[in-house]
Amino acid sequence: VVGQEVSEAEEQWLLEEIVVTASKRETSLQDTALSVSAVSGADLSKLGVTSFDQIMNTIPGATLIEKGPGDSSLIFRGVSTSSYASGNKTTATYIDEFPFFLGDADIKLVDMAQVEVLKGPQGTLYGQSAMGGVMRYITNKPNFDAVEGGFDASTSNVAGGDTGYQGNGYLNIPLSDNLAVRAVFYEHDNPGFIDNLGTGTKDINSEEVTGGRLALRWGISDRTEFNLLYLNQSQRVGGGQANGLQTPSSTYTPVTDNSIPSDIMPPDLDNPTFRSNIDPFQEVDFEALNLKLDVEFDDFDLSIMAAKKQREKFIQWDAGLFLSVYDDVTTTFAQYSDEFETNTFEARLVSTGDGSLEWIAGVWYEKEEGDLSRVIEFQTPRTDLVLFGCCAVSNGDFFWDRDEFDDTKELAVYGEVGYRFTDKTKLTLGYRRSDLELDSGVLRADGGFDGGNQAVIGIDEGTQEDVDTYKVHFEYTINEDVLAYALASSGYRAGGFNRSGLTTPTSAYESDTLWNYEVGIRSSWLDSRLIVNATAYYIDWTDIQLRIFDVVSVAQRIQNVGKASTVGLEAEIRYQATEYFHLGVNYGYTDATLEADVLDARTNPPTVLAEDGDRLPGSVKDSLSLFVDWQMPITADLGLQANASYTYTGSRKHDLFVSQSISIPEV
Q1: C-alpha separations of 70 from 238, 318, 611, 667 in Å
Q2: How confident is the model over 569-599, as pLDDT tens digits?
Q3: Rounded average pLDDT over 82-92
Q4: Given this model, what pLDDT does residue 452 score?
Q5: What is the distance between the alpha carbons of residues 63 and 56, in angstroms, rounded to a whole number?
Q6: Has residue 103 got a pLDDT over 70?
Q7: What residues contact 553, with CB distance under 8 A and at least 6 apart?
Q8: CA 80 vs CA 75, 129, 559, 593: distances in Å
Q9: Higher pLDDT residue, 390 or 168?
């Protein structure tokens, strides 16, 4: 019976209550009138989960695109225009209170308090790139009360591959009654299983990760607390493409029309047309320092936060497949590197107390400076190598060889005001005003195919936008176990600049925006042993940033085109059947489609790139996950545990276009 009191013995095995901070306040998950999912740190440890890609397929409304370690993409509610989520991100990733890099910074989930997933645009509180949703890693804070720690290790072997290992640990040390430190460390060596036939190297797609965190917590007074968090991680991933494109004959056939040969046959690993003559790999090093000061006043809490993060990335691959060079003697040696440094500041006031009026007000500033370098060099003994049917290439020639910079600044003010009309009804209004400035340019361009880039050396290319985001939220408490809500919210993704191609000048593209309308219910039944949550939503997305490949200018370009809409449903069920047996069901339905043809206006008549009614790539129409968990204690320190799960993910389109020419590897 809903609302019935339970005994102390029964209370010990009810479903765990999770407290989330998605709304910038601490609230029980079931009392949070938002589409938010959470996985506790205890569940992460119990299941041996150390990476976000191990749990994302269990989140309704989320689609994980796995391209390899450290290079995965996360899509919420079908808000994407390619299955590899190229271009600016539509999902924001936070660690505690600070935005971070998703994919490039695949943080290992060691000693985490929980992972929170907010679906739908979160523009008012979280700003740009939160138009699809937000994923938050919440770390465990240092504990003043006790010395504690833990360590676990495992080993693995891949059939036809190599042997690897994982080691994770943490240590908490109180230094005084109000000062403590907590250290986390990990080292992962994950085995590969792909052999490069071009170089003879075996198991090239391995992953090596070393990293850790150091946290300090200082309770300055009963009302003031200071927290510091330092992260550092190094990751090296081998792999990428090694071989590809099989044709009926082993004889090299030059391709002059910049397209995949029409006579492609099923793969023949012993006789591929294209062999990678180098071993591709990617290295990513990052570090971050986060500082936060919290002060409690009588009627509100003040949080002052600052962060500094740095990332260095280096990629090496063979670009022969991109350039249609299918032979065993030519190496198109490609390298990409970047270095980004970001400084962030935020100050936020959050009201406290039990009054009818609640409010949040804050200011946000972020400055990012980036340096980028791209190189493609031909190393070949051939004297007859011709690209695209027009351009002769000799040994030592550069296709690309350029340095660029890419800087951004954002200044935003935001706020939310909520008013509780009765004990059961509450209305919240939110607003954010963002001033975005982007400044980019070419510092050097020596490659023979850099084209228009040489003409803009030293010329700054910048854009400036003022973007407004809104939120209207109404919640109604039906009874103490059932909460219903309705929400309208907007989000945006920052615009930017396209680099020059062979024949096209630089060009700017603007932010794209969307509105999300949803209704939801969060409910508890059977004395809180059964939880049923469901959300239905509609998304209206306009001025979509679409990435296309321009064969004429030999460049990828982003342009604002058309609109799309999404109708969806998300449902979560959790049931604690007995003291030892727990099961869950997640279901997601996403119907994300274009609402008009996407045209390439450069041709006469305009070419149809995608058609009205096409499903957005990366979106999955149906997804389902089932899981059961059984655990029984034997002694105070020993227990038995068993877990089983099943996940179904529907088909998805790779790209939006009706027909697609080759594309430059995403870097």
Answers
A1: 11, 19, 33, 13
A2: 999 999 999 888 889 899 999 999 988 887 7
A3: 66
A4: 66
A5: 7
A6: no
A7: 451, 500, 501, 502, 503, 504
A8: 7, 12, 14, 11
A9: 168
Q: What is the dihedral of CA 264, 266, 269, 270, to 10 degrees?
A: -80
Structure tokens, 255: 């391709």
Tell me the one-letter amino acid at 266: P
What sign has the CA pseudo-torsion 654, 660, 661, 663?
negative
- Tokens read off for 188: 């992962």
DSSP conformation class of 10: H
Token readout for 130 is 């939160």
Specify the higher pLDDT residue, 138 or 549. 138
Q: Could you tell me the two tokens for 630?
A: 């059984």
State yes or no: pLDDT of 215 exceeds 90: yes
pLDDT band at 474 (very low <50, low <70, confident <90, very high): very high
Contacts of 355 (CB under 8 A, 6+ apart): none
Q: What is the mean pLDDT of residues 634-656?
A: 81
Collect all residues with Cβ–Cβ distance below 8 Å to 234 and sequence separation of at least 6.
209, 210, 211, 283, 284, 285
**Which stretches of 384-529 are assigned E, i.e. beta strand?**
386-387, 391-392, 398-420, 425-445, 461-479, 482-493, 496-498, 507-509, 512-525
| Residue 17 predicted with pLDDT over 50 | yes
In the predicted model, is pLDDT for residue 381 greater than 80? yes
pTM listed for this prediction = 0.85
Say which residues have a Cβ less than 8 Å from residue 172's Cβ, sequence separation at least 6.
Answer: 142, 143, 146, 147, 148, 149, 180, 181, 182
- 249 contacts: CB under 8 Å, gap ≥ 6: none
Taking CA atoms, 30 is separated from 42, 356, 523, 570, in Å, by 18, 21, 7, 15
Contacts of 510 (CB under 8 A, 6+ apart): 463, 465, 495, 543, 560
Question: Which tokens sit at 87?
Answer: 């271009």
Mean pLDDT of the chain: 82
Give the H or E element holding residue 125.
helix 123-126
Report the C-alpha gap between 463 and 559 in whole angstroms. 15
What share of residues in the chain are helix, strand, coil (percent, to 5)?
A: 5, 55, 40
Contact 337, 379 (CB under 8 A): no
* pLDDT attached to residue 183: 97
- Distance in angstroms (rounded) separating the CA atoms of residues 502 and 504: 6
Q: What does the angle CA 99 – CA 104 – CA 110 come to, to the nearest 5 degrees?
A: 75
255, 261 contact by CB (below 8 A) = yes
Neighbours of 355 (CB within 10 A): 10
Among residues 491, 490, 495, which one has the least CA distance to residue 508? 495
Answer whether 555's CB lies under 8 Å from 500's CB: yes
- Residue 52 vs residues 45, 58, 63, 339, 564: alpha-carbon distances, Å: 13, 11, 12, 24, 28
Mean per-residue pLDDT, 553-566: 77
Q: Are 140 and 149 in contact (CB under 8 A)?
A: no
Of 566, 512, 498, whose CA–CA distance to 544 is shortest? 512
User: Do 583 and 575 contact (CB within 8 A), yes or no?
Assistant: yes
What pLDDT, in 10s, does the model give residues 34-50? Answer: 888 888 877 777 666 76
CA count, 13 A, side-chain hemisphere, 25: 19
Task: Decide the pairing of beta strands 163-176 and 179-190.
Answer: antiparallel
Among residues 36, 18, 22, the alpha carbon closest in space to that of 572 is found at 36
